[in-house]
C-alpha cells in the first residue's frame, strides 16, 4: 500500500453492511459510493429520503435508503428500530452527518442544533445499534470530526445548549470536540469485547454544502479561495474511508489529510487536541449524553 492512500486501497467489501449518515450529498455521498463500489451493502441514513433515493440511483451496487433525522430523538429511535428489523448485522457505522456554523436554533428535543445533530444524535444512534455490531469481528464505528475541534472548543457543561449567549464557531467547536471525546471513550468501553472498534476521521478543508451557513462577510473570501484551498468531497472522504476499511487501523485512532496543517492531502494517522484526550472530560460528557438522550450502552463495561 503506497503512501498516498486512495479508494484503490479499499479492500473488498462484499458481505459487509455499512450504514452512513448524511449520505445523500458531499462527504457522506462519496463515502457511501466508494463502499458500495467495493461490494458493501450500504444504507444511506438521511433526513430527506427523496434526495437519498436520487443519490442511491447514482451509485453502483447494493444501496438502500433509511429515513433518519438526527435532530429528533424519536426519529433516531424509529430509524434504529427499522435498521434492526432489516439488518442482521452492521459492519460499519459511519457517523458522518453534520451541520456547521448554523444560526442559533434548537432540535426538536431542545438541544442546540450543532451539538444535538453532530454529537447527541449520533451518540444515541450508536447506542441503539451497537448490539448489531458487537458480534461482528472487525466492525467499526467511525465518527467524523473536524479541525474545528481545536477552534474556540470546550464542553460548556454550565451551558451546553448555549442559552445564555451563542457563538456559531464556539458551538461548532464544542460539537466536534464532543465527537472525539465520544470516540475515545467508546473505544475504551469496546476494548474488552475485542470485536468492534471506534475510530475518528476528519476531512480537512473540503468543498461541501456544510459551509452554506458561513457568515455572509466571509462568503466572498471562501468562494474565491475555494479552488485553491478546498479539497473535493471525494478527497475529503478519504480519511473516513481509510478509518473504515484499512486493515491496519486500530481503535482510538484519528485520520485526516496528510498535508500541511491537515488541510489537504491523502489520509494518514493524525493526532487531535490535548483536550480531546482528557479522560475525565470524556467520561463526564458520556454521562451527560446518556442523561440527555436517555440512551445507555448496557452491553459495554465501565471501569
UniProtKB/TrEMBL annotation:
A Pfam family matched in the record: adh_short
Keywords annotated in UniProt: Oxidoreductase
PANTHER family: PHOSPHATIDYLINOSITOL-GLYCAN BIOSYNTHESIS CLASS F PROTEIN, PHOSPHATIDYLINOSITOL-GLYCAN BIOSYNTHESIS CLASS F PROTEIN-RELATED
NCBIfam families found in the cross-reference section: PRK06197.1
The family this protein is said to belong to: Belongs to the short-chain dehydrogenases/reductases (SDR) family.
Protein name: SDR family NAD(P)-dependent oxidoreductase
